[in-house]
Amino acid sequence: MSEQPRLRLGSIAPDFEADTTIGPIKFHEWLGDSWGILFSHPGDFTPVCTTELGEVARRSPDFESRGVKVIGISANDLADHHKWVADINEYGAKFGPTDVQFPIIADPDRKISTLYDMLDALDATNRDAKGLPFTVRTVFVIDPKKIIRLTVSYPASTGRNFDEIIRVIDSLQLGDKHRITTPVNWKKGDDVIVHPSVTNEEAKTLFPDFTVHMPYLRTTPLNIHV
């Protein structure tokens, strides 16, 4: 049996069929022409994950405005998922209106978690009653061509920063639309970097306000040209 190829930036996100809290889906078909975020959870009824899913639900307008679909996955069945969603909404209401509408994949047999290499197989303490490893807290950002553009894995003890995930999506989407990259600590509205493939002559047309700091480092305000 051949080894599952390792998923890297630039890999095509594997397609799959799954049962979710909104019904059965075919992943690529569900994504359509949208960007997507697939994010995994070690298990239902866990404290850190409960806070994360509530935050994603409250940030749904931010994802929708960027054309991003979000989908969670946890190594439990649908019955547990539906019960857990009620807890998430109840706890999340302490921080603002919380209504989990995005799908959560049921993956009790870890088939999809294995496909995406989201299992914490080395941590012997991170296993359920049957001895199966739990998923680690992994994020995949996938573009409309089904290409993986970002992967990040967090330890089970640390909640994700969705401000950072949205920041990266903003950078990726602008970079796809314009010939730019983004500097350290960049946030939407800040100056960006002119892509090295752009000549100075091209930059005069594309980015008339660009500044040369080094021959290889040129910045420009982009918000006035978007």
TrEMBL record:
Q: Which SUPFAM superfamilies match?
A: Thioredoxin-like
Q: What is a single cellular component term in the Gene Ontology annotation?
A: cytosol
Q: Which Gene3D superfamilies match?
A: Antioxidant, Horf6, Chain A, domain2, Glutaredoxin
State the active site: C49
Write down the InterPro entries for this protein, in alphabetical order: AhpC/TSA, Peroxiredoxin_AhpC-typ, Peroxiredoxin_C, PRX_1cys, Thioredoxin-like_sf, Thioredoxin_domain
Question: Which keywords does this chain's UniProt record carry?
Answer: Antioxidant, Oxidoreductase, Peroxidase, Redox-active center
Query: What's the protein here called?
Result: Cysteine peroxiredoxin
Originating species: Rickenella mellea
